[in-house]
Write a structure and sequence with these properties.
Strand content: 35-45%
Order of helices and strands: EHHEEEEEEHEHHEEEEEEH
Number of helices: 6
Distance between the termini: 47 Å
Radius of gyration: 21 Å
Largest sheet: 7 strands, antiparallel
């Protein structure tokens, strides 16, 4: 979308959408993820169930990027043209869902500002859109929020295990399967495990204490503290016992009438994460299988 004089047509009086996120990763790592083709395919415009088909990046002022993902029968293309590249502080690009050809169609502008914060940083994303699309402002903000969560996962991939599954029910139903301790006890843990929940104070600061009974007769004592509870969208807790300490973030996102459930387990150190990664990835998938069985009985 450029004019005959090659001047981008952006909104004159735009609607400004701002999304912020803290990252524990350093500014350079967060910034570079925006310009690395291999990295982009893992988080930018990536959706549950989608398959990346094309990623082109020309990381220079005036250069363009294309991220194309197959979503069912639709090939969703996202196009950008870089206006500012100031590593690791600022990135500005024009954005469109079609190629930059039609001079009559306006594009939007996305600005990224990254400010150091201790060993990590804060990212501020500003998206300027035409006011005629005001009804999509909430969806746009939610979309960028999810994208930045994905970026956070990529930036911390050496100490994080991520599992995702699509469930063919509303996200309220999937959330209920966790928030109801009776239901939770019926599916939590890998295959063959049963659970006894001694305490379940489902609020920020509340404790979750349970004993997991393994199929070999061995008991595993667990204690966690809830950090964040947003019904029916998000749960964050810190697992304290018995051996591995980690932060678990669960996102329950509505996705075309279904639920995209994402689990992110973040460990304090990369070597600790690597020790358990292969086991945890498989165990979480089996846990999802048991959750699916529980939900099927609820419907």
């Amino acid at each position: 979308m450029v004019t005959k004089n090659n001047v981008p047509k952006t909104p004159v009086d735009p609607l400004v959408i701002v999304v912020k996120r803290q990252f524990s990763a350093p500014p350079k790592r967060v910034f570079d993820a925006w310009l690395n083709a291999e990295s982009l395919g893992r988080w930018l415009f990536a959706t549950p169930g989608g398959v990346m088909k094309r990623i082109d990046v020309d990381p220079r002022v005036g250069g363009q990027f294309v991220v194309a993902e197959q979503r069912g029968d639709v090939l969703a293309e996202h196009h950008g043209r870089y206006e500012v590249i100031d590593r690791p502080r600022q990135l500005v690009f024009l954005f469109s869902v079609t190629a930059f050809k039609d001079p009559e169609e306006a594009v939007s502008r996305v600005s990224i500002e990254i400010v150091p914060d201790g060993a990590g940083c804060e990212l501020r994303l500003t998206h300027e859109i035409d006011r005629k699309w005001a009804e999509y402002a909430g969806r746009t903000r939610d979309g960028w929020t999810m994208i930045l969560e994905n970026l956070d996962s990529v930036a911390e991939s050496d100490r994080e295990v991520v599992n995702q599954r699509i469930f063919d029910v509303a996200h309220e139903k999937v959330f209920q399967a966790f928030s109801d301790p009776t239901l939770l006890a019926s599916w939590w843990g890998p295959n063959g495990f049963t659970n006894t929940i001694q305490e379940f104070d489902f609020r920020p600061g509340g404790k979750w204490v349970l004993t997991m009974h393994g199929p070999n007769g061995v008991d595993f004592e667990n204690e966690s503290v809830f950090r964040e509870v947003i019904v029916p969208e998000r749960i964050v807790f810190t697992h304290l016992e018995p051996v591995h300490r980690f932060d678990m973030t669960m996102n329950f996102r509505e996705w075309s009438g279904q639920t995209a459930l994402t689990w992110r387990m973040r460990f304090d150190a990369a070597d600790e994460c690597e020790k358990v990664r292969s086991f945890v990835e498989v165990a979480n998938e089996r846990n999802f299988d048991r959750l699916a069985e529980c939900i099927h009985k609820m419907v």
